[in-house]
Write a structure and sequence with these properties.
Blueprint lengths: L31 E4 L3 E2 L5 E2 L4 E8 L4 E6 L5 E6 L3 E5 L4
Antiparallel strand pairs: 1-4, 1-7, 2-3, 4-5, 5-6
Length: 92
């Protein structure tokens, strides 16, 4: 019968491993952002580049954001962070 060895690997005390993505999101809830390219909203509506919306949710530690738009279309879209730029920071 063969013998199997189980090794448990844990992080070294005093050292903290960081995930490859940023720990803090580039944008926060209620920040105003501009979309840099045309995107498709959650219900199939096209949101044109340059549209300004409000961040309403943060996904995967800031890899994507749920953004609500009211002009020129009324839509909700999940957008990767590299397709957004900050227009106005939300008031603390």
């Amino acid at each position: 019968m063969s013998e199997r060895v189980l090794t448990l690997v844990t992080s070294t005390p005093g050292r903290r491993s960081r995930p490859p993505q940023a720990e803090r999101a580039a944008f926060r809830d209620l920040d105003r952002v501009r979309v840099l390219a045309d995107v498709e909203a959650d219900e199939g509506v096209q949101v044109p580049a340059g549209s300004i919306g409000t961040v309403v949710a943060i996904w995967a530690r800031g890899l994507a954001f749920e953004v609500e738009f009211t002009r020129p279309v009324d839509a909700l879209a999940t957008i990767k962070s590299d397709l957004l730029e900050l227009v106005e920071r939300a008031v603390d």
